[in-house]
């Protein structure tokens, strides 16, 4: 039987033959005879390739000079391992083959081999890999690209998207002599016997040994004629007599103890390498200029005394890492005066305590590493290092503040500076001609205060706008993948000014009609990344955002933005590897990215409806694969625009820098806090920077939608514009009045715009909601107290009750009808002697429930084992590991919960606020969450904090941001995700109403239970009163009125109000005294008021009992309406009347009767007035009020009442029969 060529039978036989050969090849052993030493080299390369790891794609480079054996070792590894894979190809001699046949030919050859299809139609080269992406991802592949010369070859052969095109387990090997080609692509690099890197020759140990022998034999008798010396005796002879030595390499000479005092005679010496000379204790004085010396490496030596002179006028690189000297100042060691050309200085772990002001003489310094030193502050003169580009301060654990830094600084890494609290304003000197991008890394800087964080973000934003504006002026329209500026620091909240915010790692939003005007620069991006036991093994980390813009015409553009991270380390010649970066808490990443190309498909002459989507993920900066130990949990975006020419932040920058503009305190503040951009902003209404009056201006984006972010502009010449508000000042002899003149725009529009209406009405409507929103049951709490107004006993379904459950009668003496197994998620358990309010609430509640017989399991963050509160047996505390005390990681807590739940399911699960995120809450139907504060209440706080601003004081950036941009989206997000929680517990009447009326939670899922405090710990005690007042120097029958305040001494607790009001009070009353219990920024200010104020610092619960008994009236001037302050309840239980800010939460749930004390609007005048009234009443009348307070508090605010109410709710959740009261 004959078969014709091309017939089905012929094709079938041909296919059988090919498959047979494949099987035979796989079964045939690979032998590598005639290649001595190849097996060891293969093992080294195979270790880097890591064939056993199948969860990722790995790309490994083989680097070396031509003819050194790169192809041979790659080929041997390929032949030994290709049978592990579904598809494979060794593409030899890429450089020459591409010249002969073209890259298209090589691409087709590669894809046909990988996909095992001879007649495959590849199509256009640039889209080939994308077209076959699904098929490529179906196979585990092994690809070797031999002798690749440039990026174009690499991009065409493995695809532009890189590793994302391939299935996990795929391995790609690239052999090349081009080191830069591998830097951005590979996970690991294998260096063959000899390679050239940065003008340095690197070689294998075998060649090194052989070379030493050859060098020795070249001049056996005359050591001075040899190119290299290794023998100790030869070295000593040459150092004594020879002066024309260029390189003296004594690295790791571990027995070297001394250097000759004539070292300075080596006038031709260019490099002196002493790293690793662990017994070298003294460096000789350099009395004569070693003018040729450029490199001095002294890492890991035992030098303890600093030389008196080091004259090296041409020194460019100085490294002294790991050499801990005994001179605590370490100033003389540093070669300042004689080394003006120094460009790189590495002083890691040198026991440095401070640097001198003369530091500025190193004017050419570009890289400075001060990591792992004891420095508390950097000298102010550091700002004069105008060429400094990289500054490393990692693990400087005593560093508390940063001064103004140099203008050209591009990279700052302050990882692990655990004491760092403040930074200068401005952070660096900014110039109008700014061109350098910057990255500021503040990972694990946990003490960085809010002002410092805002200053860093503000500075970064301004710099990015100036950079972007410069790009516009230079007509640069391309994509810059790296951010213009980026910053990261610990935290779990997005800045409020980010217009678009979402939970999770992706978002989609509609852009304003004129987003792509001629001032558009790009995007401001922000994420919160949650880390869990993250160890940075590659020393690279990036947050990436994939963006897609689609307009109404269907045009679409996709691009990728980098939010920054870290990718550099403090280099030195030290033999010790740098400790990996370890992170266990949430961090905020913010970047400002140039995206001019995003508007290329949009017509600037018309409005354009555009939908934008963003997807964020984290990578190790090399493989671009998702990291399992961290994830993006929140994301945000705003559009970024170049500042207007008259932007108040740019005043004073017009000449050269901010340096001239920051001579005064007001200027400094204005520069930092005027972080607004283009239109839709508040311009700081004061004299800024250049001394000129900047007119007060409020302008808005022009669209009929909603309140827009201040950084999303309108296009005035395309659509109707807003009326503008201009302000002129008219001065009279007595007062200064402001006249607001409404100026019509050039286009005629008589009707007000919707945006303008919304802008003015929304914030003040929300304010009105807090101040005026009262329902028919607004005084219900007061009515519930039998001491005042009788109400018939209530009965019915507890789920319908819209009043506090604390008012109901539950039996404390009777055991619970059913004992429950309860799970509690709480971010913190009391972890110190003075726990916060939420921690005290948790301790009080769950201890009380445990005493009632319930099996309570608390899942919380790591504890300090030395504290007594953490030795409690009941409730059972499950603290997750892997981080420092108090650092919450919900995933680990969730794992512990699931493990315990499998033993016996929990009856009810309870979360303190968002300790258990909403995406986990969906999985728990028997869940209740207690809200200690919500975003709608936070807005109220921001409004009041701004209202207490003094005339001329600039408005805080955070207020501008919250009012203009992110607060409404944040409230909307809360409204969306709150529904994932089955039951909601509000700790005040007003919070319950907002959850029902605004957040639209069904009434039967909202329950009001007021906080409670331990009634045994707070009571009236005359002995304690006498003892406390005697310590104040007050007689027992003294008529002095003692006011008391307790808690954190910070602004949002109202201490600016109390400070000013009491200052006025003591001007007219000599018989008043203020006792302050707490710590914080306002502690020192109170002490300045003299002997009328006693500052006690933080007090433990036992000390607080004496404090409450010793005062006559308790003052709570808080500016935060969210939640209920426990101090009010403690004071009332101790029999003291109260003064409190008139907020719905306090008025309707605590101070429900005028007899309980005084309420005031949160301003100085109102507080002063009620203080005057209290002093006028006298101690006896205040004591009468106090007894009524105690009577009411004993009914409503005890821990027992709170615990019984929670117990009944949990029983109701477990079994509906317990929902019926009584």
From TrEMBL:
Domain annotation Glycosyl transferase family: ranges: 1038-1178
Record's protein name: ADP-ribosyl cyclase/cyclic ADP-ribose hydrolase
Pfam families in the cross-refs: C-JID, Glyco_transf_4, Glycos_transf_1, LRR_8, NB-ARC
Record-annotated C-JID domain positions: 489-644
Residue ranges of every copy of the NB-ARC domain listed in the record: 48-188
Enzyme Commission identifier(s): 3.2.2.6
Domain Glycosyltransferase subfamily 4-like N-terminal, first and last residues per copy: 835-1015
CDD domains: GT4_PimA-like (cd03801)
Lineage, top ranks: Eukaryota, Viridiplantae, Streptophyta, Embryophyta, Tracheophyta
Enzyme class, spelled out: hydrolase
InterPro entries linked to this entry: C-JID, Glyco_trans_1, Glyco_trans_4-like_N, Leu-rich_rpt, LRR_dom_sf, NB-ARC, P-loop_NTPase
Keyword annotations of the record: Glycosyltransferase, Leucine-rich repeat, NAD, Repeat, Transferase
Domain of life: Eukaryota
Reactions this protein catalyses: NAD(+) + H2O = ADP-D-ribose + nicotinamide + H(+)
């Amino acid at each position: 039987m004959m078969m014709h060529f091309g017939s089905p039978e012929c094709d079938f036989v041909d296919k059988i033959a090919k498959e047979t050969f494949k099987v035979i090849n796989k079964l045939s052993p690979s032998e590598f005879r005639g290649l001595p030493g190849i097996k060891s080299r293969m093992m080294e390369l195979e270790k880097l390739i890591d064939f056993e790891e199948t969860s990722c794609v790995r790309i490994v480079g083989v680097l070396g000079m031509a003819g050194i054996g790169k192809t041979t070792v790659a080929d041997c590894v390929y032949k030994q391992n290709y049978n592990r894979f579904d598809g494979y190809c060794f593409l030899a001699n890429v450089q020459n083959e591409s010249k002969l046949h073209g890259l298209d030919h090589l691409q087709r050859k590669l894809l046909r081999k990988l996909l095992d299809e001879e007649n495959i139609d590849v199509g256009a080269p640039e889209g080939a890999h994308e077209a076959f992406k699904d098929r490529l991802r179906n196979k585990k592949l092994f690809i070797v690209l031999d002798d690749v010369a440039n990026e174009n070859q690499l991009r065409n052969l493995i695809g532009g998207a890189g590793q994302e095109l391939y299935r996990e387990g795929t391995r790609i090997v690239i052999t090349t002599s081009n080191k830069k080609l591998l830097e951005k692509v590979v996970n690991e690099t294998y260096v063959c016997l000899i390679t050239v890197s940065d003008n340095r020759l690197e070689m294998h140990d075998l060649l090194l040994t052989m070379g030493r022998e050859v060098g020795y034999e070249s001049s056996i008798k005359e050591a001075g004629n040899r190119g290299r010396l290794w023998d100790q005796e030869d070295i000593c002879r040459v150092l004594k007599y020879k002066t024309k030595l260029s390189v003296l390499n004594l690295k790791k000479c571990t027995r070297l103890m001394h250097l000759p005092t004539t070292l300075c005679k080596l006038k031709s010496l260019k490099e002196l390498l002493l790293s690793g000379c662990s017994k070298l204790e003294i460096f000789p004085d350099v009395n004569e200029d070693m003018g040729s010396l450029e490199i001095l490496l002294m890492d890991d030596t035992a030098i303890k005394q600093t030389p008196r002179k080091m004259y090296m006028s041409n020194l460019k690189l100085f490294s002294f890492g790991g050499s801990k000297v005994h001179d605590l100042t370490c100033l003389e060691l540093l070669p300042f005066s004689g080394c003006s050309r120094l460009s790189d200085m590495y002083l890691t772990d040198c026991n440095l305590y401070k640097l001198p002001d003369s530091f500025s003489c190193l004017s050419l310094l570009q890289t400075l590493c001060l990591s792992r030193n004891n420095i508390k502050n950097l000298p102010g003169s550091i700002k004069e290092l105008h060429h400094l580009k990289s500054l490393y301060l990692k693990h400087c654990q005593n560093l508390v503040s940063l001064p103004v830094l140099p203008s050209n600084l591009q990279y700052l890494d302050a990882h692990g500076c655990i004491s760092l609290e403040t930074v200068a304003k401005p952070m660096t000197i900014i110039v109008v001609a700014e061109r350098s991008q910057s990255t500021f890394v503040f990972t694990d800087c946990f003490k960085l205060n809010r002002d410092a964080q805002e200053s860093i973000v503000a500075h970064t934003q301004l710099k990015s706008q100036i950079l972007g504006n410069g790009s516009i002026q230079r007509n640069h329209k391309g994509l810059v993948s790296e951010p213009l500026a980026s910053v990261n620091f610990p935290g779990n909240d997005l800045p409020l000014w980010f217009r678009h915010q979402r939970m999770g790692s992706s978002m989609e939003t509609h852009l304003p009609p004129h987003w792509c005007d001629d001032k558009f620069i790009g995007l401001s991006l922000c994420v919160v990344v949650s880390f869990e036991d993250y160890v940075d093994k590659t020393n690279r980390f990036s947050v990436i955002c994939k963006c897609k813009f689609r307009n109404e015409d269907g045009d679409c553009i996709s691009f990728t933005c980098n939010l920054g991270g870290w990718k550099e380390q403090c280099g030195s010649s030290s033999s010790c590897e740098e400790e990996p970066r370890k992170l266990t808490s949430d961090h905020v990443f913010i970047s400002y990215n140039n995206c001019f190309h995003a508007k290329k498909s949009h017509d600037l002459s018309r409005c354009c409806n555009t939908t934008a989507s963003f997807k964020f993920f984290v990578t190790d900066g090399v493989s671009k694969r998702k990291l399992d130990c961290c994830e993006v949990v929140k994301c945000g975006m705003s559009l970024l625009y170049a500042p207007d020419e008259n932007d108040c932040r740019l005043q004073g920058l017009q000449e050269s820098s901010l340096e001239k503009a920051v001579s005064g305190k007001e200027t400094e503040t204005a520069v930092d806090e005027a972080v607004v951009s283009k239109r839709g902003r508040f311009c700081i209404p004061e004299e800024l920077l250049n001394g000129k009056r900047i007119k007060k201006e409020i302008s808005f984006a022009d669209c009929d939608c909603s309140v827009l972010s201040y950084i999303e502009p309108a296009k005035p010449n395309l659509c109707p514009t807003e009326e503008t508000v201009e302000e002129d000042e008219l001065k009279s002899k007595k007062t200064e009045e402001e006249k607001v003149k409404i100026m019509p725009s050039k286009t005629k529009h008589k009707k007000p715009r919707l945006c303008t209406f919304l802008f003015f009405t929304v914030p003040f409507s929300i304010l009105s909601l807090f101040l005026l929103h009262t329902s028919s049951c607004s005084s219900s709490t007061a009515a519930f107290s039998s001491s005042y107004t009788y109400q018939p006993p209530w009965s019915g379904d507890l789920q319908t009750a819209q009043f506090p459950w604390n008012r109901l009668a539950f039996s404390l003496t009777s055991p619970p009808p059913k004992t429950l197994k309860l799970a509690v998620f709480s971010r913190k358990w009391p972890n110190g002697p003075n726990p916060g309010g939420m921690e005290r609430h948790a301790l009080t509640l769950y201890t009380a429930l445990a005493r009632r017989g319930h099996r309570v399991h608390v899942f919380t963050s790591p504890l300090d084992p030395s504290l007594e509160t953490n030795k409690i047996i009941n409730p059972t505390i499950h603290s997750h590991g892997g981080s420092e005390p108090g650092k919450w990681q919900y995933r680990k807590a969730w794992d512990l919960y699931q493990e315990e739940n499998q033993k016996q399911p929990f009856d009810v699960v309870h979360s303190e606020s968002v300790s258990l995120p909403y995406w986990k809450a969906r999985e728990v139907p028997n869940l209740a969450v207690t809200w200690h504060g919500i975003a709608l209440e936070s807005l109220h706080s921001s409004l009041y904090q701004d209202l207490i601003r003094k005339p001329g004081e600039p408005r805080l950036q955070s207020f501008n941001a919250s009012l203009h941009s992110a607060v409404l989206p944040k409230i909307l997000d809360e409204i969306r995700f709150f529904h994932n929680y089955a039951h909601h517990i509000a700790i005040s009447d007003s919070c319950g109403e907002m959850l029902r009326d605004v957040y639209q939670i069904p009434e039967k899922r909202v329950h009001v239970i007021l906080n409670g405090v331990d009634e045994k710990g707070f009571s009236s005690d005359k002995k304690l009163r006498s003892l406390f007042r005697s310590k104040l120097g007050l007689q027992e029958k003294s008529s002095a009125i003692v006011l008391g305040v307790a808690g954190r001494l910070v602004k949002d607790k109202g201490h600016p109000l109390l400070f000013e009001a009491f200052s006025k009070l003591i001007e007219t009353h000599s018989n008043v005294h203020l006792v302050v219990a707490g710590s914080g920024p306002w502690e020192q200010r109170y002490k300045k008021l003299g002997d009328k104020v006693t500052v006690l610092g933080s007090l433990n619960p036992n000390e607080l009992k004496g404090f409450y008994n010793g005062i006559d009236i308790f003052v709570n001037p808080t500016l935060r309406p969210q939640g209920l302050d426990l101090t009010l309840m403690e004071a009332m239980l101790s029999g003291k009347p109260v003064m409190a800010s008139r907020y719905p939460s306090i008025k309707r749930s605590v101070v429900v009767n005028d007899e309980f004390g005084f309420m005031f609007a949160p301003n100085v005048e109102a507080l002063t007035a009620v203080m005057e009234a209290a002093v006028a009443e006298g101690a006896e009348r205040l004591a009468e009020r106090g007894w009524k307070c105690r009577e009411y508090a004993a009914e409503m605010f005890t821990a027992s009442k709170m615990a019984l109410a929670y117990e009944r709710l949990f029983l109701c959740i477990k079994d509906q029969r317990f929902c019926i009261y009584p």
